[in-house]
């Protein structure tokens, strides 16, 4: 009775799923499925965050900005009205800065489309004079209307527009892309949960006899679900880490390529520290989602036993 | 049913059917008392395994009342059932050893389920393995054990947590006569310690090996009482033999 037997010194605890269930990894391909889902989620989230940054930066840049065009064919009169417009805005207290865009700068901007427009010449293509104004505070419809009526009295050829209204369609498109990114993330989360659900059910089926035995020996639903939770958490952690690395590598490479475009709008799409932290949290959310899904699946199946 | 206070298990007008088939058990009423040794006999298909399933709470009856340890287990909340099951040891006919666990881990399973620490369970499991003669096979997986060794491992697992009721389905079916007697002595020893033992068997020779046992006989899902096991108080002086088939 008292003869010591060759027992293992480090016997597993009840919760050691690797010992209780043969398929400790709930299903072979599970980590890979989760890795792919996490990588895609990381890319979708990075795209959504980058678009958010692009929109935010652009919005900050043009907030309070208005553009005044002097649409007058005669260069002398155009110049005269432009000066009056500059003078009008310079005298307002709610204006932060006023700048008449030099004709040379306009010519350079238009050169790729119109060639040498010869703006200084009388026989050149008539191009409106531009005055770039930045108000202190946002551009409201009331302020714009007031300024428009006052300016027209001094510069009848003036057309005044808020810069934000020019970029309205761009913001709409960016917002649509953000919704698309959110939709993709939700779909990927649902697909991941469905994959875990299928894997958990498959594992339940292949380990049914063991589960029944533990059940008959007095194991609680929580103990049995715990075995599956630990297995899926391990799989999700492996897959999540791999997916995060894959996704971040893809985001980094894409970021380098977009940075190379040197476009003003795209340049504002860089990811900040908080963005990277949010992306790094995706695998954690994935693990939690997988564990909750596995628990609910197993508990629901166990409830069918008495 | 009489004297429910002192009983450990009571069945009252219990019936069991699977799906819409005819009842495999009909009008089963009996009382088991603490410290008794019962044999459940009957031909193959008589309903012995179904009756044991009801006893170890693997199956709900289609009708009737089952009470165990003073509680109505039919209406008991589901979350309260595991604690009742832990008071019942089960030796399954097909052993049901967990194939991926060693003999030691299989035997330790009920203790781990009940939350015993690794440190505390080492000795009782080692002692139990020695008692059933499997101390030299503690690291072996079930697939490498012989039928008799698997049987003994299953019995060790059933009794390691000192259950109040031990339910065994044909526990000597895969062992030689010598080992069968040894296992019966093990059950008797447990019985002397206060465990109520219910052994289902179709081996009539086995019944004579335990002189103080009471016999319940199942025939086509109906229970008969050849030794007065179902009376209160049970007739301990009843002749130790199987009742003739009606």
Task: Write up this protein.
The complex is a heterodimer of chains A (306) and B (246). Chain A is an alpha+beta fold and 306 residues long. Chain A folds into two domains: 18-59 and 169-302, no CATH class; 64-137, no CATH class. Chain A is 66% helix and 8% strand. Chain A contains twelve helices and four strands. Chain A has helices spanning 17-20, 30-62, 75-90, 103-114, 141-154, 163-166, 168-206, 208-216, 221-259, 264-267, 273-280, 282-302; strands at residues 65-70, 95-100, 129-135, 158-162. In chain A, strands 2-3-1-4 form a four-stranded antiparallel beta sheet. Helix content of chain B is 29%, strand content 21%. Chain B has 246 residues and is an alpha/beta fold. The interface between A and B is large, with 31 and 43 residues.
Helix content of chain B: 25-40%
Mean pLDDT of chain A: 81
What would you report as the Rg of chain B, rounded to the nearest angstrom? Answer: 18 Å
Report strand % of chain B: 15-25%
The number of helical segments of chain B is 7
Query: Considering DSSP H and I runs of 4 or more, what fraction of the residues of chain A is helical?
Result: 55-70%
Largest sheet of chain A: 4 strands, antiparallel
Oligomer: heterodimer
Question: How many structural domains are formed by the residues of chain A?
Answer: 2
- The backbone outline of chain A, from C-alpha atoms, is elongated
**Largest sheet, spatial ordering of strands of chain A:** 2-3-1-4
How far is the first residue's CA from the last residue's CA of chain B? 24 Å
What's the count of strands of chain A?
A: 4
The computed structural class of chain B is alpha/beta
| Proportion of residues in extended strands of chain A | 5-15%
Q: What strand line-up does the widest sheet of chain B have? A: 6-7-8-3-9-10
Mean pLDDT of chain B: 85
User: What's the number of helices of chain A?
Assistant: 12
């Amino acid at each position: 009775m008292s003869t010591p037997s060759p027992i293992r010194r480090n016997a597993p605890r009840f919760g050691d799923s690797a010992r209780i269930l043969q398929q400790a990894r709930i299903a072979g391909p599970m980590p890979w499925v989760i890795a792919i889902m996490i990588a895609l989620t990381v890319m979708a989230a990075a795209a959504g965050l980058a678009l958010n940054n692009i929109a935010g930066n652009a919005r900050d840049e043009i907030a309070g900005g208005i553009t005044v065009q002097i649409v007058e064919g005669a260069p002398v009169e155009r110049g005269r009205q432009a000066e009056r417009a500059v003078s009008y805005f310079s005298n307002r207290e709610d204006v932060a800065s006023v700048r008449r865009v030099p004709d040379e700068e306009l010519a350079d901007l238009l050169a790729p489309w119109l060639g040498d427009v010869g703006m200084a010449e009388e026989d050149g293509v008539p191009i409106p004079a531009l005055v770039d104004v930045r108000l202190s505070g946002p551009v409201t419809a009331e302020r714009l209307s007031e300024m428009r009526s006052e300016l027209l009295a001094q510069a009848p050829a003036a057309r005044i527009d808020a810069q934000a209204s020019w970029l309205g369609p761009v913001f709409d498109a960016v917002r649509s892309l953000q919704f698309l990114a959110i939709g993709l993330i939700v779909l990927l989360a649902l697909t991941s949960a469905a994959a875990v659900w299928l894997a958990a059910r498959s594992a339940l089926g292949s380990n049914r006899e063991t589960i029944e035995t533990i059940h008959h020996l007095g194991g609680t639903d929580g103990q049995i679900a715990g075995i599956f939770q630990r297995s899926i958490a391990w799989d999700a952690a492996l897959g999540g880490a791999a997916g995060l690395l894959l996704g971040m590598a893809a985001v980094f490479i894409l970021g380098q390529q977009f940075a190379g475009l040197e476009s003003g709008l795209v340049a504002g799409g860089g990811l900040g520290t908080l963005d990277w932290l949010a992306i790094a949290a995706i695998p954690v959310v994935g693990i939690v989602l997988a564990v909750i899904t596995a628990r609910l699946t197993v508990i629901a199946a166990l409830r069918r036993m008495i | 049913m009489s004297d429910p206070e002192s009983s450990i298990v009571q069945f009252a007008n219990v019936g069991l059917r699977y799906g819409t088939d005819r009842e495999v058990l009909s009008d089963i009423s009996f009382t088991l008392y603490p410290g008794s040794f019962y044999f459940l006999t009957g031909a193959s298909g008589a309903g012995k395994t179904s009756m044991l399933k009801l006893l170890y709470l693997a199956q709900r009856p289609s009708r009737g009342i089952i009470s165990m340890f003073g509680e109505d287990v039919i209406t008991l909340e589901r979350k309260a059932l595991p604690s009742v099951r832990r008071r019942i040891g089960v030796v399954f006919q097909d052993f049901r050893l967990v194939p991926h666990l060693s003999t030691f881990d299989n035997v330790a399973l009920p203790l781990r389920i009940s939350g015993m620490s690794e440190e505390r369970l080492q000795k009782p499991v080692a002692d139990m393995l020695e008692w059933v003669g499997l101390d030299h096979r503690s690291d072996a997986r079930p697939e490498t054990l012989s039928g008799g060794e698997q049987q003994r491992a299953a019995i060790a697992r059933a009794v390691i947590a000192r259950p109040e009721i031990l339910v065994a389905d044909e526990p000597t079916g895969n062992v030689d006569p010598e080992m069968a007697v040894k296992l019966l002595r093990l059950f008797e020893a447990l019985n002397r310690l206060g465990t109520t033992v219910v052994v289902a068997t179709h081996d009539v020779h086995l019944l004579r090996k335990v002189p103080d046992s009471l016999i319940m006989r199942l025939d086509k899902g109906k229970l008969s009482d050849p030794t007065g096991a179902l009376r209160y108080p049970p007739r301990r002086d009843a002749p130790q033999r199987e009742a003739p088939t009606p």
